[in-house]
Amino acid sequence: MNDIRDITDSPLGQYQKRKGVFPKAVDGHFRRLKWAIMLITLGVYYITPWLRWDRGPYAPDQAVLVDLAHRRFFMFGIEIWPHEFYYVAGLLIMAGIGLFLLTSAVGRAWCGYACPQTVWTDLFQHVERWIDGDRNAQIRLNNAPWGPAKLARRLTKWGVWLAIAVATGGAWIFYFADAPTLAADLFSGTAPYVAYFTIFILTMTTFIFGGFMREQVCIYMCPWPRIQTAMLDEQSLIVTYKNWRGEPRASVKKAEAHPGEFGDCIDCNQCVAVCPTGIDIREGPQIGCITCALCIDACDTVMKQVGRPRGLIDYATLADAEQEKQGQPATPVLKTLLRPRTLIYFGIWSAIGLGLLFMLGNRTRIDISAQQERNPIYVLLSDGDVRNAYTVRLRNMENRPREMEVSMAGLSGGRMWRGEDTEANAADRFVLTVAPDSVQKLTINVVAPYEGQQRDEFALSVKALDQQGGSDSHDVVFERPESQ
Amino acid sequence: MAKQRIDEPTGTQTVGHEWDGIEELNTPLPRWWLWTFYATVIFSIGYCIAYPAWPMIDSATKGALGWTSRGQLADEMAAEARRRGPVMSAIAATPLEDIAANAELRQVAINGGAAAFRANCVQCHGSGADGIRPGSGYPNLRDDEWLWGGDLQSIHFTLVHGIRNPDHGETRMSLMPAFGRDGILDARGVQDVVSHVRTISGQERASAASARGTTLFEANCAVCHGAAGEGNRTLGAPNLTDRIWLYGGSRQALTQTVTNSRQGVMPRWGHRLDETTVKMLAIYVHSLGGGEASPPTSTNPQTTAAAAAAPAAAAAPAAPATAARP
Ligand code: SF4
Ligand code: SF4
């Protein structure tokens, strides 16, 4: 491991100044892939809250909405209630395992392509190139003394960054309220304080992280690289400089003068110039590499210019590196992608996904839960009967009012009535309408003869009386005085 | 301590320690990290100036913003009072029955009443409003037995005027004679009455003693408790035929009651709690499971309008007591 240099490689001193990173523009397959992913992720991020979804008169029309006030999560046709949070937990677990899968297959590709930090940093770098010019111009400008011209450029750049940052923070809050209404409120200054505050925080983090801290976030602040690098193994495809092919390095001229003595690397430093984290991949795999593959594009371009085969820097596994060093061909990509580890991850991932889908398909949208009142546990009545009280919650998870019948079964001689009603109307069932998308809390009094077991079990059930139907039941205990 | 040196492969200085051949690199932190640390130090200084922070001998520094947690609480309480203002005045302005009929007001009243109950009533009636335990003498407010009536107006009247407050003209008042102690009945007579009462409440089978007791009961007790022992709510005389016994239904407890009489007292809350709170308490107590429907207003002696009749009713119980005295 002696050829691995830490990216914090530094002069002496406890604290190190950030080394400027001025990545050069590059073109190639991976750059275009990165463009495509950036377009998709940003598009999804900005457009999603504006999609409408008709849920009828009793529920919001926003396709994706995190309704914190009412503790509901709407996603197209799916509505998640707080007690169904396991769906969200399931999705998070899937995201985690998906990351294992992705990492064990293609290294830190999440970092390189889809991570918000990467996407916005990339966006900011394009703005930077557009205003300051490419790498060399940027370095020149950076080293130039402050003057009106530099200040003007800097202010323009920071202004555009800030505009993007505001739009970023601004888009986030639309996920939490009706987007068109909130947008109007935002501009008229009547939106809730927390909306402005959220925009401010996200604006500042985007501006600072995307504009100034960039790779520092990836290397020092983000916990993922520690975890992700631990998930790599020698079968994972990672960006690799094929030093057995490239070394020793020499310029084209020198190599022509001494055929057979030098490797393919012409030491043009293009791979270093394009790297968004400012590392030299030729020093081997390292924590600073986010597997964005821009160096592959850069080197491939160089190889094409000098008429040598592409892939001096390429996606390769550590196992391949050993094989190729010994002159054997590399494992086919498909074979490295489909190996036990990735297949197991994929199996777990899809099992959870199918499980969630199955639960989603079978969930009831009506629910009863009951809790016996404990203080007092029972009340003795003047005719000698015993009364228990229960706090019952009826859930109507549909977006319309539903008529429901609550009934009791299994308590001999038992009758019940709602807290607002009187014993005169006691029966073994009653009907009520539960408001759309809500939990109705009721007190139910149950009275039964004194004679019976000290603890009697019976069931409280709810049944929807409309066409869609659905029912649920809850077992409760009826208690009588001890001295029986 | 080994000497610090530059590590060849990384070009980084070592910290100078060595453990079994393992050395630690003195990798520098990024400089922004240091600046972030300084920023937190500066923030904490500003925070200490702005908010109460440093403990002094008998208090803490005041803080430039004048913020206190007590003041924040006062603000929050005031805001809460403002928020509740409209619904509280609605409750104040609405007659009891109408509050009970309005689902929203009723719920607010129940919540408010429950809070007031916890503060004022639990000491006697228990936190579950069940009179703490049977036979304790504190009525269970959840059952269906009411001494003075269980409809909204009666409960409200009881709350406002209390029970047996001698200093108060409108209070619920009745006196049961101490039949044994005052010599109205001899020991055997007391036991006979007890037998009778236990018989009509189904705790004992009829016997010679209960037959003797029947006559004594008719002569001494029926005036208040009714000929069949069914009780009289105007006088707060309990129904003796049911299964609920305020002071216990055992022979021993009943002997004690008939011998020495019982005089439960409840404070009057009309002058301690505001009218809205008393209303909410009435609705809360009524909602506990024993609440009764209101009788038609014209025949209800407990309505506020008819409250003037109460002193007359209060005077009445004295009559049988004196009448029973030879
Ligand atoms: S070394 Fe290559 S793959 Fe790694 S971060 Fe730099 S450019 Fe991207
Ligand atoms: S871009 Fe390719 S040829 Fe140029 S220095 Fe990097 S590895 Fe060598």
From TrEMBL, chain B:
It comes from the Bacteria. GO terms for molecular function: electron transfer activity; heme binding; iron ion binding; oxidoreductase activity. InterPro entries: CcoP_N, CcoP_N_sf, Cyt_c-like_dom, Cyt_c-like_dom_sf, Cyt_C_IC, Cyt_c_oxidase_cbb3_su3, Cytochrome_c_Oxidase_Subunit. Its main location: membrane. Heme c 2 binds at M176, C221, C224, H225. Residues 290-326 are annotated as: Disordered. It is found in: Cell inner membrane. Keywords: Cell inner membrane, Cell membrane, Electron transport, Heme, Hydrogen ion transport, Ion transport, Iron, Membrane, Metal-binding, Oxidoreductase, Repeat, Respiratory chain, Transmembrane, Transmembrane helix, Transport. One of its GO terms (cellular component) is plasma membrane. The chain crosses the membrane at residues 32-54. Residues 303-326 have a biased composition (Low complexity). Binds 2 heme C groups per subunit. Pathway: Energy metabolism; oxidative phosphorylation. Residues 108-201, 208-289 form the Cytochrome c domain. Heme c 1 binds at C121, C124, H125, M266. GO terms for biological process: oxidative phosphorylation; proton transmembrane transport. Its cofactor is heme c. Belongs to the CcoP / FixP family. NCBIfam families: ccoP. C-type cytochrome. Part of the cbb3-type cytochrome c oxidase complex. Component of the cbb3-type cytochrome c oxidase. This is Cbb3-type cytochrome c oxidase subunit. It comes from Sphingomonas lacunae. The gene is ccoP.
